[in-house]
Amino acid sequence: MASSPLTELLGCPAPAKLNLFLHIIGRRADGYHLLQSVFQLINRGDSLDFFLKQDGCIQRLNEVPGVAEQDDLVIRAARLLQNHAKVTAGVSIRLHKNLPMGGGLGGGSSDAATTLMALNRLWNCGLSQAELMELGLQLGADVPFFIFGKNAFVEGIGEVMQEVSCPERWFVVLEPGVHIATPTIFSAKELTRDTKPVRIADFSKANKIVWKNDLQAVACALHQPVQDAINWLNQFKADQKIEADEARMTGSGSCVFIAVSTESDAKKIQENVPDTWNSWTAKTLQQHPFLSHKNGNAE
After folding, report:
1. Catalytic (active site) residue 142
2. Distance of CA 60 to the CA centre of its chain
3. Which of 99, 117, 177, 269 reaches 20 to 30 Å from 281, CA-CA?
4. What is the CA radius of gyration of the chain?
5. Which residues, 6+ apart, have CB-to-CB distance to 18 below 8 Å?
């Protein structure tokens, strides 16, 4: 028996990412920065509901503080796919926002990627993963990564990626309470733009490479709360009972994180976080959860 056409997709996951490192290795003639990074998917994020409409109208069902509907990457993604695939149907979208904006977690990009993947299924567009990634690049450099759906060694301006194996880790993430505008960080004169390039094979030799976030120093100079949060997390590196990495900022900030080996270690650190910061724990994901979502996949 043929399955009935879909009329809705509910609880579609849009996971966050952490930059395990982020090196700026150069700058193109058009001003875009060349980077190298490892993007790690984690099991915390936003989620979206999609309801099929036959009138061609695309609408958001709920308010998102600080984001007008016409500026929302989710709405822009839906319109982009509708125009590209010449779809006559529309959609109503509800966004359940858990990730902070301006946190360096890729929340908006992830929401847009999930929108493209979900509507490809709901509207029966039939686009391939590669085609969706190409579309996503028009919305932002991080969008193709979330459609790629695997942890990745990322190069170029963020559009060149190779799957990379990341060990299972737990993370404690702090939100310092400041919003950092990405263009401000990338345009700073003090930004390091000549870090020596690394190879994907080097990622397994972490003790021989100085892994860092080149954007972190600029962000900390502009926003003391980011530096305070990093300093606070780094105290746990000296705890003999906890195996912890160097704390660092993700993306262009403002969220900072520390990686530990076990959930109990993560919970131990989080229990001590001062009330002035919002904090949470998360675990590594090996693939985007939409790929195994009961309502469909990216292909």
Report:
1. yes
2. 21
3. 117
4. 19
5. 39, 40, 42, 105, 171, 173, 250, 257
Angle CA 180–182–188, to nearest 5:
100
Q: Domain 8-163 falls in which CATH fold? A: Ribosomal Protein S5; domain 2 (3.30.230)
168 and 263 in contact (C-beta within 8 Å)?
no
Q: Phi first, then psi: what are they for 70, rounded to 5°?
A: -70, -20
Per-residue pLDDT at 179? 87
203-231 b/e (C-beta count within 10 Å ≥ 16 → b): beeeeeeebbbbbbbbbbebbebbbbbbe
| pLDDT band, very low/low/confident/very high, at 102 (cuts 50, 70, 90) | confident
Residue 1 pLDDT: 41
Q: Considering the entire predicted model, what is its pTM?
A: 0.93
Could you tell me how far CA 41 lies from the centroid of its own chain?
7
d(CA 193, CA 200): 19
Residue with the two structure tokens 């520390």:
258
Give start-end residues of each CATH 3.30.70.890 domain in the chain: 170-283
Confidence (pLDDT) at 202 = 82
Q: 35 to each of 20, 200, 259, how far by Cα in Å?
A: 13, 13, 22
Distances (CA, A) of 17 to 139, 187, 207, 252: 17, 23, 23, 12
Question: What phi and psi, each to the nearest 5 degrees, are found at residue 223?
Answer: -135, 95
The CATH number of 170-283 is which of 3.50.50.60, 3.30.70.890, 3.40.50.150, 3.30.230.10? 3.30.70.890
Q: CA–CA separation, 133 vs 144, rounded Å?
A: 4
Judge contact between 246 and 230, C-beta under 8 A: no
Among candidate residues 72, 142, 214, 265, the one labeled active-site is: 142
> Which of 41, 19, 39, 42 is closest to 219 using CA atoms?
19
Pairing of strands 170-175, 248-249: unpaired
